[in-house]
Automatic annotation (TrEMBL), chain A:
Heterotetramer of one alpha, one beta, one delta and one gamma chain. The keyword Oxidoreductase applies. Residues 42-203 form the Thiamine pyrophosphate enzyme TPP-binding domain. This is Pyruvate ferredoxin oxidoreductase. It comes from Methanocalculus chunghsingensis. SUPFAM superfamilies: Thiamin diphosphate-binding fold (THDP-binding). PANTHER family: PYRUVATE SYNTHASE SUBUNIT PORB. Keywords: Oxidoreductase, Pyruvate. It comes from the Archaea. InterPro entries: PorB-like (IPR051479), THDP-binding (IPR029061), TPP_enzyme_TPP-bd (IPR011766). GO terms for biological process: organic acid metabolic process; sulfur compound biosynthetic process. One of its GO terms (molecular function) is thiamine pyrophosphate binding. It holds the Pfam family TPP_enzyme_C.
From TrEMBL, chain B:
The keyword Oxidoreductase applies. Its EC number is 1.2.7.1. InterPro entries: Oxidoreductase_gamma_subunit, PorC_KorC, Pyrv/ketoisovalerate_OxRed_cat, Pyrv_flavodox_OxRed_cen. GO terms for molecular function: pyruvate synthase activity. Residues 10-174 form the Pyruvate/ketoisovalerate oxidoreductase catalytic domain. It comes from Methanocalculus chunghsingensis. This is pyruvate synthase. It is an enzyme of class 1 (oxidoreductase). It catalyses: 2 oxidized [2Fe-2S]-[ferredoxin] + pyruvate + CoA = 2 reduced [2Fe-2S]-[ferredoxin] + acetyl-CoA + CO2 + H(+).
UniProtKB/TrEMBL annotation, chain C:
SUPFAM superfamilies: Thiamin diphosphate-binding fold (THDP-binding), TK C-terminal domain-like. This is Pyruvate synthase subunit PorA. One of its GO terms (biological process) is response to oxidative stress. Its EC number is 1.2.7.1. Keywords: Oxidoreductase, Pyruvate. It is an enzyme of class 1 (oxidoreductase).
From TrEMBL, chain D:
The keyword 4Fe-4S applies. The keyword Isomerase does not apply. Residues 25-54, 55-84 form the 4Fe-4S ferredoxin-type domain. Heterotetramer of one alpha, one beta, one delta and one gamma chain. It comes from Methanocalculus chunghsingensis. Keywords: 4Fe-4S, Electron transport, Iron, Iron-sulfur, Metal-binding, Pyruvate, Repeat, Transport. This is Pyruvate synthase. It comes from the Archaea. GO terms for molecular function: 4 iron, 4 sulfur cluster binding; metal ion binding; oxidoreductase activity, acting on the aldehyde or oxo group of donors, iron-sulfur protein as acceptor. Its cofactor is [4Fe-4S] cluster. It holds the Pfam family Fer4_21. The lineage of its organism: Archaea, Methanobacteriati, Methanobacteriota, Stenosarchaea group, Methanomicrobia.
Length: 293, 181, 384, 86
């Protein structure tokens, strides 16, 4: 049972007002419980929480490098095992560190099936360095390295399906969640942490600065992702899809139109062709996960 | 200091031979050093391994260029490799061959030929010639005791494999001792 | 007890005797025999440790960082490209002040690909904040692991260390070593006592970032710890001598150096060949000696300046080159002797496994006598 | 104060950084319409909203950045954002 009173994230951190990652991490730490060690790769979260000597972390926490969090976690887990200690090892990293530069270490840790939980807060670009695209950036999103232009519609590729990749590693528990659905998120973290072996959760964490919306809209934007089918909350147990959140789907433009990163799809004129492509992604998600009510 | 150079083909156990000779010599109270000519050669390619034996600590780390002894695991190597290169006068060359000789060695080098392949096939059932040649080396040079060699082989191989290898070494040892090689 | 075994296995035994709790390594030639031996020890319950079969060297050292911060004594081993892949992690481990010990079976750097020995790999990490010790033979390689853990884990030091030994030339060579017992090693090296660790009962944040207000001071503290390590190596080397009889009380060693007019300076396995060559040259009346550097980081500049103060000529044997400049040891020696009238010449040799013979040492000594140096020695002119 | 070896810190000084200075709008909580659901407490990115009594939730203005997420998500519309004017 998740203890919502747990508060292991200190005020005074330097996240943007309305930061999705900060909100998600507060929930993650509630779901994970008190007996936990957190590893963070380099990224927004790491930077806004730990300028020496001010740490926002009230649980033991370590940052080593950008791409090695899963390997550092592997070493911690091995050490704890050797010492007979009970702490759970939890990685909390962004999508850049997870789906791109840290993929090698992530794959290794999951193949070895260390008893760790890896949580990716997915804000769909490299926010720490100024909103460059990542392997988790959605199709057609404009970022500083996949800018929309007179002959570009933004990011040319679909999101890398890391949950499926890690499920294929034999992970006993893989889930997706959204900060806009806190109860579900916290329960999934609790489940993942208490499942032996390498478990993974990818959390949709809207970034007001990077995506271009006001900080008070973070939760609302996250909800729209779910309601349009562009983000699906599901669980995979031993590689088998168990549960996906069903919705009465809205058209994708309701999600796209509230974010500056998709503004080029609507201005100077509405681009029906591109919006249709994104709608097709949502439709495919709906078919794959059976989310339509 | 005495130096041995072993010529063989990848897979014939030249490095193991060097190591076991060093182990046996060390057991006899001698300071020994064994190392391969480090390479990326695969099975079949000509390879070398080296042994140094001395009554004092060996500090020298270069390869062996002027050996007192050589072991040639396979006489077919002689066609392409100058196995006798740099041999010291008074040196001993132990050559595995079915022939009885006819090799051109430097002045003063004694060549001992032995059909180690035949011995190995009969005793081990496989053409593993290195242990027979170690036995021949022990007999020809007196650098290592046979009992020390036996212990060294037993330290590396287990059970029946050790027994057959020791028998192979013993036969070669006795042949050379008896002047029948 | 004296026994004869392969250098890699001697190192693996030394590591076992040091009781690491987490071993994390990725195989690479010529380091493989060490990590294979350790894996066997774990499989046979001869070493009570977690052995993590990581997917890369990068992860190998990263996992050591995790295990070390969680409170375990850790070990890894690598060489060449593997060490280069760890580059970033090396700086990180040193900055986090983690007493990780890692064996480097020295090997050349690609390209061209070469599996053979020189010391370019560890030398290229000279600025990373790791203590660097170089072994002349397998006894020293074995012993330096004990010394390294003892020094690194001192709470006044808290630095990681490379124990470097030449790939193949030592790693694949059988030679006798005096293997200490577990009781002896336990008496020398106390159980791991982490200075601070990840612990839910006492949460600490590790690996924070430092703004310009703090960064330089952290680097300065790192530098100070490195300089303190000089004294610690001498202290624990002396302790080692008292307990085991083998003398590692110096950062450097002299051989026939007291009355030498020409000093050769070298690191690692080449020192043995140099000593034999010196014995021969001495018989011919050449007043030549060796200054062996055991500890390259921290660099014993004052000790070297004092040891070489009386010589006329110095010839440095560098198994590395800082491309566009000189050999790394040569540069350091020239710095240590700055302002003196000693002629100092640097020779790049033995790169990529090029064999070094006594006659080469004689030839270099002659070149130095003639005032010719700062060159690659032993090039095949017909290829150039 | 001497540096902590290895650039580490224990919890405590995180609160030294008063992020209240970032704020342009500040939240006003109305007890009358509050349902006590505590979604504001949960969603606040700062974690700076404290329960002080029945339906009495108070933001720590030393840290509140004024993002307005609490006001936006409050199901009872019990939180409104007002501009900081002096």
């Amino acid at each position: 049972m998740v203890d919502k009173s747990i508060e292991n994230f200190e005020c005074g951190h330097r996240a943007c007002g309305g930061c999705g990652a900060a909100t998600a991490v507060r929930m993650i730490l509630k779901g994970a419980g008190e007996d936990v060690i957190v590893v963070s790769p380099t990224g927004c979260l790491e930077v806004f929480t730990t300028p020496y000597p001010e740490t926002a972390w009230k649980v033991p926490w370590i940052h080593s490098l950008f791409e090695n969090a899963a390997a550092v976690a592997s070493g911690i887990e091995a050490s704890l095992k050797r010492q007979g200690r009970s702490e759970k090892v939890l990685v909390i990293g962004g999508d850049g560190a997870t789906v791109d530069i840290g993929m090698l270490c992530l794959s290794g840790a999951f193949e070895r099936n260390h008893d760790i939980t890896y949580i990716c807060y997915d804000n769909e670009a490299y926010m720490n360095t100024g909103i460059q695209r990542s392997g988790a950036t959605p199709f057609d999103a404009s970022t500083s390295t996949s800018p929309a232009g007179s002959c570009s519609m933004g990011n040319k590729h679909a999101k890398k399906d890391v949950p499926a990749i890690l499920a294929a590693h034999g992970s006993p528990y893989v889930a997706t969640a959204s900060l806009s659905y806190p109860t579900d998120l916290m329960k999934k973290v609790e489940t993942a942490v208490n499942t032996p072996g390498a478990t993974y959760i990818q959390i949709h964490a809207p970034c007001c600065t990077g995506w271009g919306f006001e900080g008070d809209q973070t939760v609302a934007v996250g909800k729209l992702a779910i309601e349009t089918g562009l983000w699906v909350n599901y669980e995979m147990v031993d590689g088998v899809l168990r549960k996906a959140k069903k919705v009465k789907r809205k058209p994708v433009e309701e999600y796209l139109s509230v974010q500056k990163r998709f503004r080029h799809l609507f201005k100077p004129k509405r681009n029906e062709e591109e919006i249709a492509k994104i709608q097709a992604i949502a439709d495919a998600n709906a078919a794959k996960f059976g989310i339509d009510i | 200091m005495r130096e041995l150079r072993i010529h063989g083909r990848g897979g014939q156990g030249s490095v193991t031979a060097a190591e076991l000779i060093a182990v046996a010599a060390f057991a006899g109270g001698v300071y020994a050093q064994a190392f391969p000519a480090f390479g990326v050669e695969r099975r079949g390619a000509p390879v070398q391994a080296f042994v140094r034996l001395s009554d004092e600590t060996i500090r020298l780390r270069s390869q062996v260029y002027e050996p007192d002894y050589i072991i040639v695991q396979d006489s077919t190597l002689i066609r392409d490799v100058n196995v006798f290169a740099g041999m010291k006068p008074g040196g001993i060359a132990i050559v595995n061959t079915e022939k009885s000789g006819g090799y051109e060695a430097p002045e003063g080098v004694r060549i001992i030929t032995i059909d180690a392949t035949k011995i190995a096939l009969e005793e081990i059932g496989l053409p593993i010639t290195n242990t027979a040649l170690m036995g021949a080396f022990a007999a020809a040079t007196g650098e290592i005791d046979f009992s020390a060699l036996e212990d060294a082989i037993r330290g590396r191989f287990e059970g029946k494999l050790a027994d057959t290898n020791i028998r192979s070494a013993q036969r070669a040892f006795e042949m050379v001792k008896g002047g029948n090689a | 007890m004296k026994e004869i075994l392969e250098g890699s296995h001697a190192v693996a035994e030394a590591v076992r005797l040091c009781r690491p709790q987490v071993v994390s390594a990725y195989p690479i030639t010529p380091q493989t025999h060490i990590v294979e031996a350790l894996a066997s020890m774990v499989a046979d319950c001869k070493l009570d440790a977690e052995y993590i079969c990581v997917e890369s060297e990068f992860s190998a050292l990263s996992a050591c960082i995790g295990a070390s911060t969680a409170g375990s004594r850790t070990y890894s081993a690598t060489t060449s490209q593997g060490l280069a892949l760890m580059y970033e992690v090396c700086f990180n481990a040193a900055g986090m002040r983690l007493p990780i010990v890692m064996t480097i079976a020295n090997r050349a750097m690609s390209a061209p690909l070469s599996i053979w020995n020189d010391q370019q790999d560890s030398i290229s990490l000279r600025d990373s904040g790791w203590i660097q010790l170089y072994a002349e033979d397998n006894q020293e390689a074995l012993d330096l692991h004990l010394l390294a853990y003892r020094v690194c884990e001192d709470h006044d030091i808290l630095l990681p260390a490379f124990v470097c030994f030449d790939g193949f030339i030592l790693s694949h060579t059988y030679e006798p070593v005096d293997m200490p017992t577990q009781e002896e090693v336990d008496a020398y090296l106390p159980a791991f006592n982490p200075y601070q660790r990840l612990d839910a009962k006492d949460p600490i944040s590790f690996g924070m970032y430092a703004t310009p207000d703090y960064y330089m001071e952290f680097r300065y503290e790192n530098q100070r710890a490195m300089l303190r390590a000089k004294e610690a190596i001498v202290r624990y080397g002396t302790l080692f001598k008292e307990q085991f009889g083998r003398d590692y009380s110096g950062l450097i060693e002299g051989y026939e150096l007291e009355d030498a007019e020409i000093a050769l300076v070298a690191m690692g396995s080449i020192c043995g060949t140099v000593k034999d060559a010196i014995d021969e040259m001495r018989k011919d009346g050449i007043k030549v000696g060796l200054l062996k550097i055991r500890c390259f980081r921290p660099f014993p500049d004052e000790e070297i300046a004092a040891a070489l103060a009386h010589v006329k000529t110095v010839a440095i044997l560098d198994k590395n080159v800082s491309l566009g400049s000189k050999g790394a040891v040569g540069l350091e020696i020239k710095d240590a002797l700055y302002g003196s009238s000693i002629a100092v010449y640097d020779y790049i040799l033995g790169l990529g496994g090029r064999d070094i013979r006594k006659k080469d040492i004689r030839a270099i000594t002659k070149l130095a006598e003639q005032g010719s140096g700062d060159m690659f020695y032993g090039l095949r002119e017909e290829l150039l | 104060m001497p540096l902590n070896i290895g650039c580490t810190a224990r919890p405590g000084r995180g609160r030294d950084n008063k992020t209240g200075s970032w704020r342009v709008f500040y939240p006003i909580f109305t007890e009358e319409t509050c349902t006590g659901c505590e979604i504001c407490v949960l969603l606040c990115p700062e974690g700076c909203i404290e329960k002080k009594g029945e339906k009495k939730y108070v933001p720590d203005l030393d840290y509140c950045k004024g993002c307005g997420l609490c006001a936006e998500e409050c199901p009872g519309d019990a939180i409104t954002m007002e501009k900081e004017e002096k």
